[in-house]
Design a protein that fits this description.
heterodimer, A: mainly alpha, MetI-like fold, 13 helices, globular, B: 444 residues, alpha+beta, six-stranded mixed beta sheet, 46% helix, transmembrane (chain A)
Amino acid sequence: MVEQTVRPATRPVPPVTPAPAAPRRRGPGAAPWLFLAPYLVLFTTFTLVPAVYGLWISLHEWDYLLPGKPFVGVDNYGALLDSGSAVYESFWQSMQATGIFTVFTVPLLVALPLGVALILNRAFPGRTFFRAVYFAPYVLSVAVVGLLWRFVLDPNLGVVNAGLGAIGLPGDTPWTTGLPWAWISLVGVTVWWTLGFNAVIYLAGLQDIPRELYEAASIDGGGKWAAFRHVTLPGLRPVLLFIVINTVLASANMFGQAYLITQGAPGQETRTAIMYIAEEGLRNYRMGSAAAMSYVLTLALLIISLIVFRLFREKDPS
Amino acid sequence: MNPSLTRRGLLGLGLGSGSAVLLGACGGDGPNPVVGGGGQNAQPAATTYTGPDVTLAFWNGFTGGDGPIMKSLVDKFNQANQNIKVSMNVYEWADYYQKVPAAVSTGNGPDLGIMHVDQLATNAARGVVLPLDDVAQSLQLDEAAFSPPVWRAGVYNQKRFGIPLDVHSLGMFYNKKVLEQAGLDPDKPPTNNDEYMSALETLKGKGIQGHWATPFPFTGSHQFMSLVWQFGGQIFDEQGTKATFAEQPGQQAMTWLVDLIQKGYSPRNVAQDADLLALQNGKAAFNWNGIWTINTLRQAEGLEWGVAPLPQIGTQPAVWASSHNFVQFKQRSQDQNKLTAGKVFINYISQQSLEWAKGGQVPARRDIRESQGFKDLIEQASIGTQIDNVHFLPSVPGIGDVMAALDTAVNEAILLRKPPAQALADGANKANQLLEQNAKKYGG
C-alpha cells in the first residue's frame, strides 16, 4: 500500500506539451495529480514527514525541552538488544504482552464475528434488533468499557465473582490481578467490545456475494457446508484479508483496556508495547528511546502484515 | 543565590522590556536561559499591583471537589483586583504535566500554575518553571512560615521553584460502625503497632478483614513508603543517586504489608480502589489513604467514618506526603507586569488557604494551620497533626520515572508473586539503572 502511494510522488509529472499534431490529449494530464494532491499533502504532512522525523529522533537522546539532544547513532536500538540496559527487560516484556494479546484476540475476532454475521444475514424476526445489539458495545469509548469492566471483574467486590460464588463455583478468581486470568479478561472484554465492528464488515461482504452462486451450488447438489466452503469463503476473501490485517494491527496497538482494567498488573505482565512506549516517551521524556521502540514494533507489524498478505495470495488457485 | 543589589538597582532604574533581555543575558540559570526568570525580578512586597490591566492564565489539575473551591477563590481575587484578570483552566493532572511543557516550549504556556512538589525538579531542569526566590523574599515567606520539610522540598539546585499551597499526606480512615460491631472503641482508633494488630485480630474474629493491602500505587506505594520512613529507612539516598528502599527498613515495611494478607487481615488480589470501596461498604475497617479521601467519604450516604494519623508501626512516626505548589512558567518574552501581578495572586491565594483547606487539604502556611478556623476542620486538622513527620521524595529531576520501579516492586510483593526482599531488590536494581540514566540526561 505504501508503495503505491509513494510512487506517484517520486515520478516526475510528464510535461504537457501543446502539440498541434495531437488534437486529442495523449495521457491523463495533470488531472489525477490534482485530485490526489489534497490527500498527498495530508499524507506527507502527517505520515511521511513524522515517520522520517521519528527515525531521526530515534538516533538521538531526545527530550524536546532540553537544549542538548546528543546524537547517539544506533545506541537506542542497541539498548533494546542489550540485556544489561535499563529498557531491555521492560521492552521485551511489553512486546511479549502485546504478542500474547494479539495471538488470542485475532482468531476470536476473525471467527466469532463471521458466525454472528452468518446468523444475522438470515431472515428472521427481530434481525435488525440483534444487529444493533451486537454492534452496540462498539460505540462505547474505551474509558467507559475499561471502567465498567474493572468494577465488574474486581476480584473481591465484582459482580462476576459474586455470581460465580453464589452458584457454588470458585468466587475468588483474580480476574484483573492474576495470570492467566488478566489475559482472559482483557481478551474477553476486547472481543465483546469490538466483535460488532468486524461482524458489520462481514455482513456487508456477505451481501455482496451474488445469490446465483448459491443457487448454482444447490443445483450442483452441494449442501450447506459445501456452499459455505466454496461460495461464501471465497466470496469473502477480500473482506477476510481486510479483517485479519485490521484486527492484527488493532490488537497490536492495544492500550486503553490494559491501562484501565489491569494497569499493567500483575507486575508488568499486561503492560503492552504501546503502553510502555507512551510511558517512555511521553512521561519519562526519553523520546529517542521511545521512537526506536516504535520502529521495532512497526517492523514487527510490517513483517506480520506481509506474511498475512502472502498467505492470502497463495490460497489463490493458479 | 539571592538576587544581588546591583540587579535590583538596575531593575529599579529601568523596568522596560529591554531590561528583561539584559537580565536574561546575565541569568545563566537553567538549561534554557532565554528568559532570565523571576529570580532577577525582586521588588518590594508585591501585595498590590498598580500597573496597567493584565490577564493571567492559571492552569491546574483540580478536577475533583477542589476545582470549584479554587475557582471561587480566583473569582474573589478578580473582584478584589480590578486590574488583574486571572482565568483558570483545569486539566487532568496526567494531561496537565504533558500539556504544560509542550505549551511552554511553543510560547503558549500559561503564566501561573500548580505543580506537585515531586514534579518541581523535573520541570525546573527542563526549563518549564521559573525560580521564585524573589517571590518568597518579597512576600517575606520563609521556612518558619511553613514547616521545614514542606518548605525545603521546593528547592532544586539551591533555587526555589515552588511556593507551597498545601500539604496532602496519608491518614488512617476508619469505618466507625465496623469498629463498633467488632466491639472496638470508634473514638479511639489504634495509634501504634500493638493496638493496630490487636484491633485487626479482633476484627478477624468477627469475620472482617480490617486492612485491605492494595498492590497499586494509590495508595499501596504510599503506604509502603510511609512504613519505610517509620522503620527509619529512606527511599533514596540524600542526593537521589541511589535507591535505598530495598534495605532492611524497606524489607520490614514490605513484610509488614504482606503479612496483613498472610495473617488473614487482608484478602488477596485487592484491585485498584477496592480497598477504599471496602471501607465504604463495611468490608474493611481501616484504609490508609490520601487526605483527598475526605471528599469521597463525605459524599457516601450513611457512612460513619473518622480519620486519624497513621499508627506508628515502626520506630518513629512518619507519613508520605505531597504538596501543591504555585509555579510561574517561562515565557518567550517576559512581561514584568504579569510577573508582578502573578506574585500578588500567589500571595492572595496563599493567605486564603483556610478556604482552600475546607476542600480537604492541610494549608502549608503555619499561621493558618495554627488558626482556630483550621482546627475547626476536624478531619483536616487530624491529618494535619502529622505535619512535622511528613516525608517527600528527594528533589531530583526525573524522580517520577523512577517511582515506576518501586510501584512494580510493591505490586509484585503484595500480589505474592515474589517474596518481599526479592521484589524490592529487583525494584531497586531497576530504580538504580533509571537514576543513572536520569543523572546522565539531566547532567547530574
